[in-house]
Amino acid sequence: MSKLFAPLKVGRKTLNQRIALVPMTHLRADNHHLPLPSMKEYYGQRASVPGTLLVTEAIVISPQHGVYQNIPGIHNSSQIAAWKEVTRTVHEYCPVLNAVHSARTDIGRTFAENS
Ligand SMILES: Cc1cc2nc3c(=O)[nH]c(=O)nc-3n(C[C@H](O)[C@H](O)[C@H](O)COP(=O)(O)O)c2cc1C
């Protein structure tokens, strides 16, 4: 059997196979960077094989960080509540979830300067 489908321990978790979802921005947030319900559906579908590692897309951690239109944020209570929903949905299938990461400050500046 290919090693690709062999389990792999990552920290305290064990992946059932070695294929992970890479971070991919898919613009499923509203104009206030609030994740839309389709975000939950997107990650829930990709978590439907147990033991899969999902890495989320870039997430804005403050209004000063990397502000592209319609990418998700996690710096206010509405955004945090929406991500909790995503996490809850994913964990229904899959104990191994998502490392999140922030967008870059220089991208934010570039966007602000150009708009
Ligand atoms: C449509 C698209 C959106 C992407 N969004 C992100 C992102 O939000 N954050 C990130 O770190 N990488 C992002 N990437 C980069 C992919 O994760 C990267 O291409 C993937 O890890 C494969 O790596 P490689 O391009 O070096 O082969 C994106 C790639 C694509 C094609």
UniProtKB/TrEMBL annotation:
Residues 3-93 form the NADH:flavin oxidoreductase/NADH oxidase N-terminal domain. This is NADH:flavin oxidoreductase/NADH oxidase N-terminal domain-containing protein. It comes from the Eukaryota. PANTHER family: NADH OXIDOREDUCTASE-RELATED, NADPH DEHYDROGENASE 2-RELATED. Pfam families: Oxidored_FMN. GO terms for molecular function: FMN binding; NADPH dehydrogenase activity.
